[in-house]
């Protein structure tokens, strides 16, 4: 069956079309240019942009796949978590398309979709696998017996998400929003061993994360240098901060694999696009005998293909479709795969 996925949880209007795990189209309109000058996503602006972008982005996806509306067999949509107003535009559009086309509707969890998307690139997920979700709003370790049915939370951040830490440290360093890609780039010219920043909760015996102490430590270090009239070498600070984040992430992910005796690790979410995280995770997984899967960077950040991918799994699993009454749930828990 052909599944069309709709993603509007943040600033991206993403439309994906898949057949099984074959990606046929993935079109994205982003309102990030309108938010960047505010240093964060402005909810009202995002909602309006989704409304304006919805029809053209759906039409572009159909054109990319060489399909007509009448070819679509099911609609999947991000039902949460995310910005309430932004989600609502996507959910309302999805209901309209499902009703108008007479096809089933599947409301899916955005975070589970960040995990499911990898199948479009690397085939069916091993059951079970450990998934580390690292994004703008979340940082979690998950045991995933079956991404269509059952996701178990093993640990998560107790304060900032990994992506949030990247974005806040970027601001301290005078880099644009969202800062993750800029830190990644700046860090390539610096040394990750230049400054020893703290590794929060590293050996505390939990699978939780903490990044706010690290963020504060970077800000204090920069302030102290500037106060004493010394220059701040942005690439070294970026690289040392990034090293602290990815060191903790990769160690905890492998601790989870060991604890649950699982030999397949998947990393998803926007921060999984980070080049140093990808390299260090590969190195450490190789040493530990764990198979690593990370989607290509364009599938790590928000997109419609991830929603279509999870929708496709739900269709294949024979899950009962959602009703046309489903709400948009801004705080949908990670363990609720579909609504
Ligand atoms: P959530 O998925 O938790 O709802 P979100 O959808 O806003 O949050 P994503 O689009 O999955 O988040 O990821 C965006 C985050 O990823 C931002 O914080 C951004 O800075 C970060 N990010 C993107 N690319 C990179 C990179 N190369 N290195 C580090 N961080 C990155
Ligand atoms: Mg985004
Ligand atoms: Fe996301």
TrEMBL record:
EC class of the enzyme, as a word: transferase
Sites where the protein binds substrate: 133-137, 167, 180, 184, 274
Entry's EC annotation: 2.3.1.234
GO cellular component terms, semicolon-separated: cytoplasm
Entry's Gene Ontology BP terms: tRNA threonylcarbamoyladenosine modification
Catalytic activity: L-threonylcarbamoyladenylate + adenosine(37) in tRNA = N(6)-L-threonylcarbamoyladenosine(37) in tRNA + AMP + H(+)
PROSITE patterns recorded: GLYCOPROTEASE
Cofactor: binding comment: Binds 1 Fe(2+) ion per subunit.
Residue ranges of every copy of the Gcp-like domain listed in the record: 23-308
SUPFAM superfamilies tied to this protein: Actin-like ATPase domain
Cellular location(s): Cytoplasm
Annotated GO MF terms: iron ion binding; tRNA N(6)-L-threonylcarbamoyladenine synthase activity
Keywords assigned by UniProt, alphabetized: Acyltransferase, Cytoplasm, Iron, Metal-binding, Transferase, tRNA processing
Family per similarity comment: Belongs to the KAE1 / TsaD family.
Protein known as: tRNA N6-adenosine threonylcarbamoyltransferase
GN (gene name): tsaD
């Amino acid at each position: 069956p052909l599944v069309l996925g709709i993603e509007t949880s943040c600033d991206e209007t993403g439309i994906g079309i898949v057949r099984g795990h074959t990606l046929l189209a993935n079109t994205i309109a982003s309102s990030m240019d309108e938010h960047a000058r505010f240093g964060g996503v402005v909810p009202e602006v995002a909602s309006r942009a989704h409304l304006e972008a919805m029809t053209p982005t759906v039409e572009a996806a159909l054109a990319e796949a060489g399909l007509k509306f009448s070819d679509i067999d099911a609609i999947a949509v991000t039902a949460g978590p995310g910005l309430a107003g932004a989600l609502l535009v996507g959910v309302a559009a999805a209901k309209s398309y499902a009703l108008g086309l007479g096809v089933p509707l599947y409301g899916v969890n955005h975070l589970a979709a960040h995990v499911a998307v990898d199948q479009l690139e690397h085939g069916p997920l091993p059951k079970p696998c450990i998934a580390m979700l690292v994004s703008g709003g979340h940082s979690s370790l998950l045991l995933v017996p079956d991404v269509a049915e059952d996701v178990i939370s093993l640990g998560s951040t107790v304060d900032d998400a990994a992506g949030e830490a990247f974005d806040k440290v970027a601001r301290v360093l005078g880099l644009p929003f969202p800062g993750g890609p800029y830190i990644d780039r700046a860090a390539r010219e610096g040394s990750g061993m230049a400054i020893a920043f703290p590794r929060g909760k590293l050996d505390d015996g939990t699978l939780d994360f903490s990044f706010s102490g690290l963020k504060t430590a970077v800000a204090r270090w920069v302030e102290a240098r500037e106060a004493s009239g010394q220059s701040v070498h942005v690439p070294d600070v970026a690289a040392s901060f990034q090293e602290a984040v990815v060191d903790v992430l990769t160690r905890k992910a492998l601790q989870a694999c060991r604890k649950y005796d699982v030999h397949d690790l998947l990393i998803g979410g926007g921060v999984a696009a980070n080049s140093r995280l990808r390299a260090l995770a590969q190195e450490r997984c190789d040493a530990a005998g764990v198979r690593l899967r990370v989607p290509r960077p364009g599938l790590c950040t928000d997109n419609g293909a991830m929603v279509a991918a999870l929708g496709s799994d739900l269709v294949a699993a024979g899950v009962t479709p959602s009703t046309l009454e489903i709400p948009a749930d801004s705080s949908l828990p990670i363990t609720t795969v579909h609504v």
